[in-house]
Amino acid sequence: MSDTVAVEVSNVYKVFGKKQREVVKRLQAGASRGELTALGTAAVIDASFEVKKGEIFVVMGLSGSGKSTLIRMLNGLLEPTAGNVTVYGSPVSGVPSKQLREVRRTKISMVFQHFALLPHRTVLDNAAYGLEVQGVSLDERRKRAQDVVDRVGLSGWEDKLPGELSGGMQQRVGLARALASDTDVLLMDEAFSALDPLIRREMQEQLVELQQELGKTIIFITHDLNEAMFLGDRIAVMRDGRIVQVGTPDEILTDPANDYVAQFVQDVDRARVLTAAGVMEPARAVVSGSAGPRAALRTMRDMQTSAAFVVGNGRKLLGVVHDRDVLKHVKAGNRDLMTIVRNDPATVGPDQYLVDLFEPAAESHLPVAVVDERGRLLGAIPRVTLLAALANVPTTTGENQVIETPATVAVEVITQTLRETAGMTDEVDTKTRVHSDDVEAVREGSFN
Amino acid sequence: MDIRIPLGQWVEDFVDVLTDVAQPFFDVLRAIFLGAHDLINLVFQSPPFWVIILAVAALGFLARGWKLALGVLVGFTLILAVDQWENAMDTLSLVLVASIIAVIISVPLGILGARFDNASRILKPILDFLQTMPALVYLIPALILFRVGVVPGIVATIVFALAPGVRLTELGIRGVDKEVVEAGHAFGSSPFRILRQIQLPLAMPSIMAGVNQVIMLSLSMVVIAGMVGAGGLGGDVVASLNRLDIGLGFEAGLSVVILAIVLDRLTASLGTRKPRVKKADAVPSVNAEASVSQKDEQLVAASAS
Ligand SMILES: Nc1ncnc2c1ncn2[C@@H]1O[C@H](COP(=O)(O)OP(=O)(O)OP(=O)(O)O)[C@@H](O)[C@H]1O
Ligand SMILES: [Mg+2]
């Protein structure tokens, strides 16, 4: 995903009925949709959002919430009553039809709920339709269409008519047609809703795969929450013509903007939607590998935990230390923490779904560490947090010592030990302070 | 009370004005229709009868199979046997000319009606009028404008047969799956391209049903056209009526029926003919992981057998 804006929608209204302008005016003045039903149906009200290049943007909402109306304004199949739509800077609303056709040919294509294939044309010619309209020569467009047909897994079927294909295969043709026309933006209005669940899942996975390969910008409409959560980089939730929330699947789930969204998302399979990065806590008990054992001991005492993550340069996770080990170490006067680091913390990647976390969480008595692909510690997920996230109760309880593994050595013993050994490593203490600032920075970084 | 709107007078005046002002125009039309009719008539009359019979039988075989071919052989031989061959060919020419012109007029009108609701609203009552007005009435202005002969018959036939062509074209185009038309728009097609590549092909069964109706109505009009000297089977029917010649009337009438059945079967098959499907010579290999679904597997199995 880049920062280039692919599709920009600003303050778009669509009203069906006789007095469209008046309805818009009254809506802008604050009237509710329900008051104006006599004048017209406000299908989309004041919609504004941007879709970035390479993003999968999902629009979700109940039947009649205005999703289809909205997506049809993005390629000019419907003209907004008010507001503007641009695709890569080219206006789509309020332009002559010739110019609009040019935008459709070069910038934005569409996949339809009921496939909308040309029944009298073969699979290959259907796939080549967009290219044909663009004026590409027969040989060239057949060749390019063939590539796409192969890519969507329909090799060998190119001479069949759509009627001879199953639903899933027909929609692959629909997808091939949109991909072959080589526009950056793909609109998909409930593209998988007419398919049965197994094929549907398959198509979703294939779409994500294709998107990653080709980097298309996809605007996908669905009323299926799980589909939205699976596909969407960001999701817009619509209700009665208004967009009530735009956010990542995690944000929508963990921080619904209102009761409507909350109710909407309550049935979702959270374990398959929420990611480690979405629920992790800042790792509190963290010590630097280069800090001495005393610093580690002090941190664990302050946190009242029995173990701490040890990080090296660039916050790379090295392992864990346990309070008993460290205590012995300090008493023995040993200054190198690294010799007692155990190399066994359970780690997961930030994008892993919670379903993948149960096993490591069950097997480890420590919080599960979340590390990025370079092994850097991003945060930690204690079991309590995992359960709370699944049960959808807030986990931000502030001072949450509970979530750390309780100390196995009494605080007094540690304090005593530290006092006894004081003086031998004061300079290390200051070093630790510096490092804990670094750690603070990591926490913030990982939450942006 | 003696309030009478002189509507008939007005129409008469109107036709008078037409003849005064536009007679050259109608003369040109007359020449064109006459030329077309003579040309087609030449095609049917000049070859020996058995060439025509075999040609039509072959058409029947292609369109419907051997049953229709056999029907054509028997029927046309019967026409020959009752000595109506020349008349039948005359009538066939007249029907074909009138039908072709009626289709040329009605299909674009139907397209217009499908595209613009206003056009549809205007067309509808006109079509109702044309269809319900007794067919004989058309003969009067046609006679005045085109003088006696084949042409007023053709014109009256066209006017009478127009309506179903327009209606079924409009119906067919309006009935095309909206999403498919939308797909055409979504990929940047012009309205004309959508008409040509999507709407007309998909509306074709309905349009062909309209063509079939046009031809049938034309045929039913030829008897009436015979009254104005259009000749053909209609001429003999009218003659038999004047002379109360039951035998001649039956023979000519039967020939009309045979022509009607043959034309109907031939044209009806145009609309219902399915797009030919190429037989797959081999089972297409579908990407293994792409087609794990049962449905797809069934399809593979089906196309293999
Ligand atoms: N052409 C139209 N004329 C009048 N009203 C319309 C038209 N199209 C849509 N509407 C109305 O606009 C509202 C939104 O419809 P829309 O089709 O956008 O909903 P949707 O979210 O796509 O629903 P679904 O999930 O059923 O497809 C509905 O109340 C609908 O009745
Ligand atoms: Mg919809």
Describe this structure in words.
The complex is a heterodimer of chains A (448) and B (305). The model of chain A is unreliable at 397-403 and 426-448 (pLDDT under 50). Chain A is built from 18 helices and 16 strands. Chain A has a domain at 277-444: Roll (CBS-domain). With 448 residues, chain A is of the alpha/beta class. A 6-stranded mixed β-sheet of chain A has the order 6-7-8-3-9-10, with helices on both faces. Chain B has one domain: MetI-like fold (Orthogonal Bundle), CATH 1.10.3720. Chain B has helices at residues 7-45, 49-64, 66-81, 85-115, 117-132, 135-146, 150-174, 178-186, 191-226, 232-243, 246-272, 294-304. Chain B is mostly helical and 305 residues long. Chain B has 12 helices and no strands. The A-B interface holds A 75, 77, 101-106, 109-110, 112-120, 129-130, 133-134, 152-157, 159-161, 164-169, 172, 177, 181, 187, 196, 198-199, 202, 206 and B 177, 179-180, 182-183, 185-190, 193, 197-198, 201-202, 275, 277-278, 280, 283-287, 289-296, 298-299, 303. The structure holds adenosine-5'-triphosphate (ATP) and magnesium ion.
In short:
The complex is a heterodimer of chains A (448) and B (305). Chain A is α/β, with parallel strands linked by helices.
Assembly annotation = heterodimer
Q: What's the CATH architecture name of chain B?
A: Orthogonal Bundle
What distance separates the N and C termini of chain B? 82 Å
CATH topology term of chain B: MetI-like fold
**How many structural domains of chain B?**
1
Discrete helix count of chain A: 18
Strand segment count of chain B: 0
The top-level CATH class of chain B is Mainly Alpha
Instruction: Please identify the structural class of chain A as seen in this structure.
Output: alpha/beta
Strand runs of chain A, count = 16
Q: Which band does the percent of strand residues of chain B land in?
A: under 5%
CATH class of the domain at 277-444 in chain A: Alpha Beta
Element pattern of chain B in H and E: HHHHHHHHHHHH
Going by CATH, the homologous superfamily of chain B would be MetI-like
Per the CATH scheme, the topology name of the domain at 277-444 in chain A is: CBS-domain
- Beta-strand percentage range of chain A: 15-25%
Largest interface: pair, residues per side: A-B, 47 and 36 residues
Mean pLDDT of chain B: 84
Termini Cα gap of chain A? 17 Å
Gyration radius of chain A, in Å: 28 Å
CATH architecture of the domain at 277-444 in chain A: Roll
